[in-house]
Amino acid sequence: MTHARLVLANLGRHKRRTVLTILGVALALFLFASLRTVVTTIAATAEYGGARRLVVTNATGIVFPLPMAYANRIQALSGVHAVSWASWFGGRYGDNKRFFAQFAVDPESYLALYPEISLPEDQKEAFFQERSSAIVGRRLLEVFGWRLGQDVTIQGTIFPGDWTFTIRGVYTPTDQVINDDMLIFRSDYLDERLGRPGITGWYVVEIDDADQAAAVSKAIDDLFRNSSAPTKTGTEQAFNASFATMWGNVELLMGTIGMAVVFAILMVSANAMMMSARDRTGEVAVLKTIGFSDRTLFGLVMAEAGIIAFTGAVLGLGSATWLYRATNFNAMGFLPGFQVTPRTLVLGGGVALLLMLASGLAPAIRAARLPVVQALRRVE
Amino acid sequence: MALVEIRDVHKSFQRDAQRIDVFADLTLDVAQGSFLALMGPSGSGKSTLLNLIAGLDRPTSGTVRVADAEVSRMKSGALASWRARHLGFVFQQLNLLPVLTAAQNVELPLLLTRLSKAERAERVGVALGVVGLLDRMDHYPRQLSGGQEQRTAIARAIVADPTLVLLDEPTGQLDAKSSQEVLTLLQRLNDEFGKTVIIVTHDAHAAERAKTALHLDKGVLVEAEGVAR
Predict the structure, then answer these.
(1) Mind telling me how many Å the CA of A246 is from chain B's nearest CA?
(2) What is the CATH number of the domain that holds B139?
(3) Predicted model pTM
(4) Predicted ipTM?
(5) What share of chain B is helix, strand, coil (3-state, %, to 5)?
């Protein structure tokens, strides 16, 4: 027999209550980790962006196209190293139950600007050679059970009709913020089928010097200020951040929900701990009579609270970490790189510690201060 | 010199606006090796006196000295370690922790010592042997009879070899046969092992086994009458 054995024996007194309390704590911390990971993933996406990459969109709004003729004029500006372009396709596949993004891009310049989109050289070459070819993310390939060389037909919504692409490459992002849930095809295929209207969704511009981002952005916007399609240019990071703000104040929302959930479960587990301590008033009196000091009894009750909180934390935080890693969860492409961060785990540990103090402190102090005679009278 | 010295002890309780005096100017000496029975009607203060000797309660005034220590003035921490060294206490009921076996319950006081695991196991074996429950050591309290539970509590009270063993109505919840077993055991502890035993009881048959019986009534201690010895 040891003090630890005594603590474990007490925890085993009402096994169902102990297990339910631990599961309650685990659920609270699982939800805490999940909600916080939504926030950290959005924040990581918003912060992502090549330091030397600018995005040029139509000043009226991103849904309005820009003339293809702008490419050469942007390229000619001082400080510009490379230019590429892309368009949102917005098609449907099959029964449309599984959403994924499709982009039309200029293959060679686009992949040169995004080395994070990594695929074997032979597949890249095949994509460059064949106009109706496409490359897809590894996850998308696995979700639909596609294979290289397979034809995939997408129903266009913005650009009506059936669009058939041959899968010639499978990319793997080297940065987890890059979505591996996309289908990327060639913009010249889109241009050809639409009758060569000579438009694109936006431009991506690589500049020579990241410190010149503001100056080059201004130069681009000045260049097209009096045209039929004026531009709005900014860093890629600002562009991504503007998408993140479309979610609204997610941080506040998730934080509020998260804290409400944790607080509610904290109350439940604190109540369970206090009930457990109250049930043992007589036993506390007996232990004090034997010679257990107030400090030892305080420690024993706190240890019980600690074991419940720690076990719940390991289960809750551990299962959240494992689940999102094992399933490679990304909310159907909306939250790429959805992984519980070490900082979230540390914060979760802090919440568990708080839980231990909140649920254990009151009964522990009560046990330590309880006068034996009063305790015995209460039991009688 | 007496093992227990109670001098001019006054004890009163406050119940709402009313002050209840349990006893005033109580003086008592209990010599080492005594077997004392404290008798008296309900509410006479027998258990309160026992609690004062054990340092579980404090007198309103006066002093309580046990084994050269003034327990009425000791602080909580010192009192706890004093109890662990010098005192064995048995309640009428609720003695054992239901989640521990008989052996684990008996071992509890030894967790407060520096004894090794093997030494603790040996002492638990001896204590359970003295009360005749070696074959029940792995049983939980719910698997023991009332008499066996009380004997286990007595084993726990003596396992750390205390100076003084106090028992508050130890046979109050037991049938006649179990009561006799417990009382025989207490007599043996006093006769064979030289333990000083103080027992609070309503039962005249229980008091008969003691060497001395005192009657507490209206705050006054007198030699008990009608206790055959």
Answers:
(1) 57
(2) 3.40.50.300
(3) 0.73
(4) 0.87
(5) 35, 25, 35
